[in-house]
Amino acid sequence: MVKQSSAQRIIEIKPVSDPNVKVYPRTIRGLFNSWRVAFVWLTQIVFYGLCWLPWNGRQAVLFDLEQRRFYLFDLVLWPQDTIYLTILLLISALALFLFTAVAGRLWCGYSCPQTVYTEIFLWVERWIEGDRPQRIKLDAAPNSGKKVAKKTLKHGIWLAISLWTGLTFVGYFTPIRDLLSGLSNAGTGAWEIFWILFYGGATYGMAGFLREHMCKYICPYAQFQFVMFDRDTLIVAYDAQRGETRGSRPKNTDPRATGLGDCIDCSICVQVCPTGIDIRDGLQLECIGCAACIDACDQVMDKMNYPRGLIRYSTENAVEQGFARQEIVRRTFRLRPMLYLAALLIISGASAWSIATRIPLKIGIEKERAVLYREGDNGAIENSFRMHLTNASEQARHFRIEVSGLPGIRVLGNDLANVPAAGMQEIALTIQAEPGSIGSGSHPILFRVIDAADPAIQIEQKASFWMP
Length: 468
Prior knowledge:
By secondary structure, the protein is an alpha+beta fold.
């Protein structure tokens, strides 16, 4: 028998569930379900609550597109800081690659917004319509007052959750308190209304109707994730050597005496799967690694008095060769994950150092083009500049402006600038140099802007001075 890689076998596996057949996940309790519930609460407390957190008299996290400022607690980012957004995306990608190479689709199973909101919507559905058998029966029943009432209540709650989610999302771009105040007095702009409805509608559609179809057919991550898998990647695995041949039998029956494996073919692992697959068919693209089937199978094994772990988190090599947990952990430290980890640590460390040592001042200098130079009353040569100062901190600052690079060069007139907290200031500067000190043409000079209260905060920028 020729062994094939995970990616090769995935390509050959066809979807095991008809896309036109609705999936009704069964309720299950267990260790991994508790972890999944905990992550739902954690992610939603952060998402719904962070925009309400006050900080320095404003919202702690706010992406103010109109004023072109991003506030992240004490950090204020401007359009010139786009590099940090690029770095953040790179760090996120590397972290996703690392987690996928080590532990498969943990992100999909526990923290992906699609999984989280589908789980929330399922909680509402189960509360109103009942567990899997009741929901199947209700959908198959003819329309009645009771059925319409249940469906209306369910969709009403779904819509309320979706709209609040859309409102919260927009609240990270428009201050949430101002947004709610505008909604109450009909003062909210068309932009905010559009995005509340758009994001709310997307949540309602994807978590309420598309559900597993997002993971199976639409999400790009599901299509390329297996490029990062190898035979030592942790996955939800069915131990076919132990489980086959499947078959029902009375409780406490020794499966070896009947020529059967430990799998009693109860199909509960299929019933609890949110994407409707049968994990016993092997590694599949549709598996999101939520481990609901592990909780279900462990409960069945307990009832049959068989050892747990027929379905478990393991690796392909571990299942086939019977590796112990220590060997699985040891094989985690292989080349690919270590390369991802090294790149992640280097980029994260460099970014943290850059932010920690970041000077909260940005300057831009433009030479007045209309007149290259002019002669002053005392015969000195003057050049005009416009300086743009950006205070990237949340306290007003007073700056002193110096210039050097030519004999006798100085700032003519006021050399001080007051810039408000998280604000900008544009000032006109006249720079004067002694005539005849150097030749004609362009000469490099250096501007230095220094915080009057904290000389450690200073920045330099080069410019050109023209002589006749």
